Amino acid sequence: MIWYPYQQMKTMNEPYEIVDAEGVYLYTKGGKKMIDSISSWWSTIHGYKHPVLTEAIVTQAEKFSHVMLGGLTHEPVKRLADKLEKWLPGDLDYCFFSDSGSVAVEVALKMALQYHVNKGDKERIGILSLTNSYHGDTFKAMEAGDDEDYHFVLEAFGENDNVVHIPTEIDALEAAFSRYHASLNSFIVEPLLQGAGGMLMYDISFLQRARELCDKYDVLLIFDEVATGFGRTGNRFVADLVQPDILILGKALTGGYIGHAATVTNHKVYDAFYSDDPDKALMHGPTFMGNPLACSVALKSIELFEKEDYMSRIARITEIMHREMDGFTDPRIKEIRIMGGCICIEVKDSRDLKGFREFAYEHGVFNRPFLSYMYAMVPYVITEEQLVHVLEVMKKWFD
Ligand SMILES: *Cc1c(COP(=O)(O)O)cnc(C)c1O
């Protein structure tokens, strides 16, 4: 028996059974063809069954599908680390791989704490993070996040004094730094776009000020770009605009083919671990870190991203979203937000989205609204006609 994610098993709707997938389309057992408007949780940026990506996996699988990274290494992981070192901005040069975004967040938070401990400061046990943030489902990631789904954890453990949540306002940011700076090891954010918190968007000036304050107080700035990376905000990475000390990548890293993630640090962080003292080493090592299939497909995914000029495609997606949606209103709608390859229609009452998944399915679109958010994060290979259809279905719901 499968235990499905984020579901009350007793009352959940049947999931659609997928038997094939190609490009932006999913094919169900029931014979339905539908556009995946949310890219399988924001990951399949190149669409499904991409010949180049599939070949990368097959070719590597014929050699070896996995070897551990403890005491062993291999070409795909070396090439991916080299590629990321060159491709990512500034001196974000050191890649620690793991098997999922949540684990990569755990690694980042562990690094931030140990960074200070290694430098002789054991008092910095605090984390600053944002209200409505989401950083994954593991315990420390839940703690850093601010998601009401975990209310039972808060109830069980009580308020955690070591995590401070602030809204995305510069005043709140400055106040938090002046009050807590001596106890903070890091400030973790989903930069510009808070995904699972409701596709909330905020201004780059907030991150610029955060960078200044982090520099001033030696607090590590962590960008969780698991969702925002690889073009989703209309920037390749938000890290191209403001540089974090630690950058976390996941979801689209492998083009959505296999779970994999990376926690990438700059020289300052790495240097605090680099020592003759074994106690200063990073003690972490997921069994499947640097998996050769994942690294091979990630490399090809990045090559496609560059070769096919995805940044122009994403700009075009944004343009079409504005053209189709600007001026669209309904009394039930609270706000429509668009950024890069993401659109969100927030309604006033979540009950107004009940049944939308089935409605979209009937119209050949796979969508999965949550709370009061109807959103799309389309694959970048989507055609104008397909994208317009997705947006039409979203609008038609309000007829
Ligand atoms: C999805 C997500 C994660 C968790 O990644 P998993 O691979 O699901 O563990 C972490 N941070 C952000 C911003 C995410 O969107």
Describe the SSE topology.
Elements (H helix, E strand, L loop, with lengths): L17 E5 L2 E4 L4 E4 L2 H4 L8 H13 L11 H13 L6 E5 L2 H18 L7 E5 L8 H6 L6 H7 L5 E4 L3 H11 L3 E6 L3 E2 L5 E2 L2 H14 L2 E5 L21 E4 L11 E5 L1 H5 L20 H16 L2 H16 L7 E7 L2 E6 L8 H7 L2 E2 L6 E4 L7 H13 L3
Parallel strand pairs: 3-15, 5-6, 5-7, 7-10, 10-11
Antiparallel strand pairs: 1-2, 2-3, 4-12, 8-9, 11-12, 13-14, 14-16
Helix pairs in contact: 2-10, 3-10, 7-8, 11-13
Bound molecules: pyridoxal-5'-phosphate.
Global mean pLDDT: 97
Low-confidence stretches: none
Give the radius of gyration.
21 Å
Looking at the structure, what is the overall shape?
A: globular
Range of strand content? 15-25%
Structural class of the helices, strands and pairings? alpha/beta
Largest sheet, spatial ordering of strands: 4-12-11-10-7-5-6
